[in-house]
Amino acid sequence: MNNKFWIVFLHTYVTKLKSKSFFISTIITAFIVFGISQLDRIIEAFSDGGEKTIGVIDETNGWYESLQAQLQSNKEIKLIRHDKSEEQAKKLVQTEQWYAYIVLHVQNGQPKVTYYAKNIADTDVTYEVEQALQHVKIAMMAKQIGLTYDQMNALYAPIAMEKVALEEHAKTEEQLNQARAIVYVLLFAMYMFVLMYGSMIMMEVATEKSSRIMEILISSISPIQQLFGKILGIALLSLTQFVIIFSVGYASMKNSDMLRQLLGMNELPLSLMIYGIIFFLLGYLLYAMLFAVLGSIVSRVEEVQQMAGPVTMLVVAAFIMAMFGLNAPESPFITAMSFIPFFAPMIMFLRIGMLHVPVWEIAFSIVLLVGTIAFLFVFGSKIYRGGVLMYNQASSWKDLKRAWQLTKK
Amino acid sequence: MGLVLQHVTKQFGSFTAVDDVTLCIPEQHMFGFLGANGAGKTTTFRMILGLLEPTKGEITWNGERITYKHSHLIGYLPEERGLYPKLKVKEQLIYLGRLRGLHKEEIVKEMRYWLERFKIPQYENQKVEQLSKGNQQKIQFIAAVLHRPQLLILDEPFSGLDPVNVEMLKKAVIDLQQKGTTIVFSSHRMEHVEQLCEHICIMHKGKPIVHGSIKELKRSFGKKNVIIHGELPFETLTDIPGVLKMEKMVEGVRLQVADESVSQRILEHIYAKGFIRTFSLEEPSLNDIFIEKVGATYEQ
């Protein structure tokens, strides 16, 4: 790696870093991540906060009081006993003085409840009311049968079933949930970044080629150095963006109980993060190489999408398999796929996160992946060399062969 | 020693783009490549630059094969014009200059000199896409000469420029040659080549069909042109032995004659037949040679 490689590397990095599109996409993504981490607070902030008044027409004896007691702690719902006609209650709901009203009566010893509201789309309120009524009913019934409070509690206590894995390194239930969440987040990040930055590279190459500056570039620096300077410059750019977004996410999640519990962010498993970065970089290199080679045989920027299609499908396929694998990491299919280089970055990473994978399997998968990248590098840089000199009316996959021939003697 | 091409051949599959070219371009010379589209000029340049590998033969600059180690010695203006549309002129030239091994300070100094010279200093901090096509071409020319190359390769440098800019660029090219740069350029505009080069090579279908100094070529060509302006019965002139071709022009005719002596016979023929405003004997133009040679191989 010499001086010129660094010039291309830094030029690519700095120009892209300063570009408006990078700035905007980083801000927007960071904002979305921040938003998700604060979702509970945002929802809270948007709800009107006011109490919802619900009228109760009680045709039973004593249910209203019990229900009132049940909903005492609920700040959102306020109950009002209504002794007048149902017509009047209907009017109150229609004029929005009340949110809803319920009619309680007992039929054949079983309570029967009807809920009236302007619309019944908001399931939150009905759910709360239904839950409260369920409790009231159980308490009432228990009293009728003559059960004590303790007896009733014993009846409804959930079964304590603890799942214990016998394999030595197998993950505990709690660890698995945590791993699943982390793996999911990182898989999604991998998917987004590979697609986003892979197509950025392809666009870059196609733009340089179609703006015809490529010939000047490759008359002063070898195409291989130029290609690698570009791929690694954009890799650094993607890492920069990843670090920014990840920091924003981490910092804002520290204050959010919901997500911290979900992800178990208190103790982020370091080895998993390192594997994540390794597989992310290798996956990126593999796909960046594919995208760059395809970009080099395209003559016009408009053709980029069309040529990128099959490679994009590979990334999408890997992601779909990974989503399936999250729930069945031990299936033979997932195990097999974790060795195929085009899927390995996501699927092997998923297996590492969810299971205890023997070191040799990880090593084997990485070796296969690195080998494929090396092969693509040798093969692809030859096509790249020829491809950037080729200008056609319409591009097709046949151009790969033509580009290859162009670099021969 | 300069630039030497020895039996250089380039084949793409079964198609031969350049066929056995042997040339020697001494240092500090200005050398012109002529040829129709598809004659193999650009392929030859790409081989000189090392972008393509010759199928056979060898290319050397001062005895050494050209690799990326020599890229600071070589300047290239490709036929297909292009710059980064979104980059500013200054950023662009700094990037390209650094890739040719220059430091930033030298680039800025050199860039200012050229921008002044081309009368476009106000564009230093503008994006390339905002510049006119002619001005973009000047920027590209600057990118090719910024690092004061020993060998400068210009592929169709004057195409698409207005006459004022052509003159400006021509002067710059002549200046560079006088300062010691070896310049190889291609064109299909004969008059540019004729004005600038001492040596030329006419390519046709990959083969160098004519190659040598322009003076020699014209002398050995033998045929001359006679130009007559005036009111005369021109139709009968083609009957004179030695008159090969007649071309009607607005003010008279242009005749191609087999040798100088024919001109005297023509003069005798037209004497006292009408009013003669101009009668001149001229060297053949490069255009005549080109048409003759390329046309001849067409007929084969």
TrEMBL record, chain A:
Main localisation: membrane
Membrane-spanning intervals of the chain: 21-39, 181-206, 227-252, 272-295, 307-326, 332-350, 362-384
Protein location: Cell membrane
Any one GO CC term of the record: plasma membrane
Keyword Transmembrane: yes
ABC-2 type transporter transmembrane domain: residues covered: 20-380
Highest classification ranks of the organism: Bacteria, Bacillati, Bacillota, Bacilli, Bacillales
Topology of this chain in the membrane: Multi-pass membrane protein
Keywords on record: Cell membrane, Membrane, Transmembrane, Transmembrane helix
Keyword Membrane: yes
Name under which the protein is recorded: ABC-2 type transport system permease protein
Entry GO MF terms: ABC-type transporter activity
InterPro entries: ABC-2_transporter_component, ABC2_TM
From TrEMBL, chain B:
SUPFAM superfamilies noted in UniProt: P-loop containing nucleoside triphosphate hydrolases (SSF52540)
One GO molecular-function entry: ATP binding
Domain ABC transporter: 3-230
UniProt keyword terms in alphabetical order: ATP-binding, Nucleotide-binding, Transport
Protein family (similarity comment): Belongs to the ABC transporter superfamily.
Record's protein name: ABC-2 type transport system ATP-binding protein
UniProt xrefs under InterPro entries: AAA+_ATPase (IPR003593), ABC_transporter-like_ATP-bd (IPR003439), ABC_transporter-like_CS (IPR017871), ABC_transporter_ATP-binding (IPR050763), DrrA1/2-like_C (IPR025302), P-loop_NTPase (IPR027417)
UniProt cross-references to PANTHER family, sorted A to Z: ABC TRANSPORTER ATP-BINDING PROTEIN, ABC TRANSPORTER ATP-BINDING PROTEIN NATA
